[in-house]
Design brief:
By secondary structure, the chain is mainly alpha-helical. It has three helices and no strands.
Length: 89
């Protein structure tokens, strides 16, 4: 009886072949290639998050900036007050 190849099996084989070929061309193992891809994806996610944060910072109104700075100043005073020297450095 002939085996029917499913799309899933075909895609998995194709992916495995592509990974093996890329690893061979780079002179690395498939595991090394996968680790590098995971690192690249993580870096991309971090960069997207940083861009989003910078965009939000750039869109703040002067009132929001003043409020945030006042809150930051309050936090600094609280931290300094709890230092062993009482913030008298």
């Amino acid at each position: 009886m002939a085996r029917t190849e499913t799309t899933t099996i075909r895609v998995r084989r194709n992916t495995h072949e592509r990974l093996a070929e890329e690893a061979k061309l780079a002179g690395k193992s498939v595991t090394q290639v996968l680790e590098e891809v995971a690192d690249m994806l993580e870096e991309e996610r971090i960069m997207e998050s940083a861009l989003e944060a910078w965009t939000r910072m750039a869109e703040r109104t002067p009132e929001e900036i003043a409020r945030d700075e006042a809150r930051d100043d309050e936090w600094v005073r609280e931290i300094e007050a709890n230092l062993p020297s009482g913030g008298q450095d």
